[in-house]
Amino acid sequence: MRNLMALLSGLLFGAGLALSGMMNPARVRGFLDIAGDWDPTLAFVMGGAVLVMALAWALQRRMHRPLACEDFALPGTRLIDARLIGGAALFGVGWGLGGLCPGPAIASLVFHPVSAGVFVVAMLAGMLALRLIDTLRG
Amino acid sequence: MFDWFMQTFPDAQPLHGLAGGVLIGLGGAVMLLGPGRIAGISGMTARVAGLSGGAPWPLAALFLAGLPAGALAMAALIGGIPALFPPSLVLLAIAGLVTGVGTRLGSGCTSGHGVCGLSRLSPRSIVATLTFVATGMMTVALVNALGGGI
Questions:
Q1: Which of A66, A94, B20, B86 is the most buried (most CB within 10 A)?
Q2: What's the rounded Cα separation, in Å, for the pair A94 and A88?
Q3: Which domain holds residue B127?
């Protein structure tokens, strides 16, 4: 049941990415281009998504357990450190360069296998590199 | 109001954006209320690649598989998805690499921090989202100044 729900979640998410314009790097860059020809579309994407999710969180707070698992598995850390800010800063650079974030990149694999493929393989390499560095540093 | 908006931002698609955002939010809601997890795409990707713990493997893999499948279904419904990619594969590779390091270091991307975390009013996610939007804007300004626009 939980696997079916995960698939449904991905399907809805992917359909939303496709409809919203998030899978168009030119539009994403247009949103980030406040100094130039700004395209506010992505603010509407964020607004719609955050609105629905805020309702979901309101429901979640009234539930003792999720529908398809024993317990909620949610991040509990509240630490705001250099790792969080540095990581987010780096991610923003990648987002601006490519006009892609991880979700749209993965969803684009079936439409633009070369361009999205290069991005996704490089992203996995970056994740692996950080994992190796973290392992070496203990 | 709507006319004014469309005259000011002729390239914008606010209704597509809003409807797409609602679908994204529903996707996040199903993951939160069903399996009880954050629909964080960078985290799920690392999990499927064996680079982190977290969700059971089949759950993460099915979630990720749903992304292109859902996009294909939407493309069939609306007659294709317009997309203009940066032409340079070298640039896309650098972008991907930086995104991979950054999302793991910062524990999330646009989905986990931007959608799930912001709506939870998580202080970490608010800081992360403000940060990646800011550096994204600076990067685009720099790329455009250097003639790398698309």
A1: A94
A2: 10
A3: 85-150
- Check: CB of residue A41 under 8 Å from CB of residue A27: yes
| Same domain (yes/no): B26, B99 | no
- Name every chain B residue with its beta carbon within 8 A of the beta carbon of A2: 34-35, 56, 59
ipTM: 0.97
Nearest to B95 among A42, A69, A119 (CB): A119
Over residues B76-93, the pLDDT tens digits come to 999 999 999 999 999 999
Counted domains in chain B: 2
Interface test with B, best of A42, A61, A93, A134 (most B CBs within 10 A): A93
Selection from B114, B16, B73 nearest residue A19 by Cα? B16
d(CA B123, CA B113): 10
Count of beta carbons in the 10 Å neighbourhood of residue A88: 29
Both B6 and B58 in one domain: the answer is yes
| Residue ending a domain, choose from B36, B56, B83 | B83
Residues B77 and B111 in one domain: no
For CA atoms A85, B88, A35, A42, the dihedral sign is negative
Look at residues A121, A108, A114 and name the one whose alpha carbon lies nearest to residue A25: A108
Task: Match 């398809």 to its residue by tokens.
Answer: A68
